[in-house]
Design goal:
This protein has two domains: about 270 residues, Aldolase class I (TIM Barrel, Alpha-Beta Barrel); about 100 residues, Orthogonal Bundle (Recoverin, domain 1). By secondary structure, the chain is of the alpha/beta class. Strands 2-3-4-5-6-7-8-9 form an eight-stranded parallel beta barrel, surrounded by eight helices. It has a two-stranded parallel sheet with strand order 1-10. About 45% of the residues lie in helices and about 15% in strands. The radius of gyration is 26 Å and the shape is elongated. The structure holds manganese (II) ion (MN). The site of manganese (II) ion (MN) has 6 residues, from loops.
Length: about 400
């Protein structure tokens, strides 16, 4: 049986805290409903100490979806942990997620604390959180720029203090897959079965998904990610990409999630409607062009057999169908198919003429709308009727 990987969604926390992505409590509830339908294992709903809205959102999500594990974020101090615990008081499956930075660069410039102080605060925070719930996650912020010996020391200490999940974030998107895999493998070996090792990758170098996949090959079993990859700066690992990479390459990645992939596209669409921007058109899985073909050679192959140019069935991620974009790179095959789909089947001779005029027009434009294609086809069919021949 394939190993289970837990999907920890932080769209409503890391995603929501980034520019243009803030959501009201009502909006978070709508998004949470969709994420629950999608099948995420853990829903991080906010950072309660940060605002009243975050605190209310955590409470509202936990009460609305009692069967889902709901996480609240807290720095490693008493005030934050109490705020998280309070917002989770009605939760049936609460998780307190506490964090502190462990890299020297953060210790020196941000926290102005020694390694020993940070270690002590991490342990104290986990102990305190465990007084409120059994499910405590600890994150070593900036883990990938932390001295690995110290990171291992902190990881062992927080597990001894009661953390069940140890998250080793690539907070600044600095790591590369092989390096990250080795770091994860080291901590997994050190912790054994005593805790789940988790990853949280940022996309500053465009490696968030690759690093997350490398991490599970190194033994991590929880991936923190967001819909459309939203999040601080360049964003987090995109949930839809992680999940579809696992599903599509099960031959090399024998891991299972509970994600119902048919909900991926609707989930992405809902998020876009709630925040100020959507995924770029060429975004994997959920972008507008993710299943669109324009080049003639591609369209011809695709129409003969879909799998020539598609590694996933668009329906498997909830995209209604593949799109053939008719532009200057398109061929006769796709044009004929479109005319037929639009109720205007053409003879071979008519098609030749329509194709000729179509390429002239497409050369000057970025792609032709269906109305323009119908217009061209109708024109040619009319001419054929009148004269029996057409001028090209
Ligand atoms: Mn983050």
């Amino acid at each position: 049986m394939a190993d289970r990987v837990y999907i920890f969604d932080t769209t409503l926390r890391d995603g929501e805290q980034s520019p243009g992505c803030s959501m009201t409590v009502a909006e978070k509830l709508r998004m949470a409903a969709k994420l629950v339908e999608l099948g995420v294992d853990i829903l991080e709903a906010g950072f309660p100490i940060a605002s009243q809205g975050d605190s209310e959102a955590v409470d509202a999500v936990a009460r609305e979806f009692p069967w889902v594990s709901v996480a609240a974020l807290a720095r490693s101090n008493r005030g934050d942990i109490l705020a998280a615990a309070t917002s989770l008081k009605n939760a049936r499956r609460p998780r307190i997620h506490t964090f502190i930075a462990t890299s020297d660069i953060h210790l020196k410039h941000k926290l102005k604390k020694s390694r020993q102080q940070v270690l002590d605060e991490a342990v104290a925070a986990v102990r305190l959180a465990r007084e409120y719930c059994d499910d405590v996650e600890f994150s070593a912020e900036d883990a990938t720029r932390t001295d690995p010996d110290y990171l291992e020391q902190v990881s062992r200490a927080v597990v001894a203090a009661g953390a069940r999940t140890v998250n080793l974030p690539d907070t600044v998107g600095f790591s590369i897959p092989e390096e990250y895999r080795a770091l994860i493998a080291r901590i997994v070996k050190a912790l054994g079965d005593s805790a789940v090792v988790s990853v949280h990758c940022h996309d500053d170098l465009g490696l968030a998904v690759a690093n997350s996949l490398a991490a599970i090959q190194g033994g991590a079993r929880q991936i923190e990610c967001t819909i459309n990859g939203i999040g601080e700066r360049a964003g987090n690992a995109a949930l839809e990409e992680v999940v579809m990479a696992l599903n599509t390459r099960r031959d090399l990645l024998p891991f299972e999630t509970r994600i119902v992939t048919e909900h991926l596209f609707p989930c992405s669409q809902l998020l876009t409607s709630l925040i100020t921007f959507g995924p770029q058109p060429n975004k994997a899985i959920v972008g507008e062009n993710a299943f669109a073909h324009e080049a003639g050679i591609h369209q011809d192959g695709f129409l003969k057999e879909r799998t020539t140019y598609e590694i996933m069935d668009p329906k498997s991620v909830g995209v209604p169908e593949s799109k053939l974009v008719l532009g200057k790179h398109s061929g006769r095959h796709a044009l004929a198919k479109r005319c037929e789909d639009l109720g205007m089947p053409l003879t071979k001779e008519q098609l030749d003429t329509v194709y000729h005029r179509f390429t002239e027009l497409a050369d000057r434009k970025k792609g032709l709308r269906n109305e323009e294609i119908i217009g061209l086809a109708r024109e040619v069919v009319e001419e054929t009727k009148q004269t029996g021949v057409t001028a090209s």
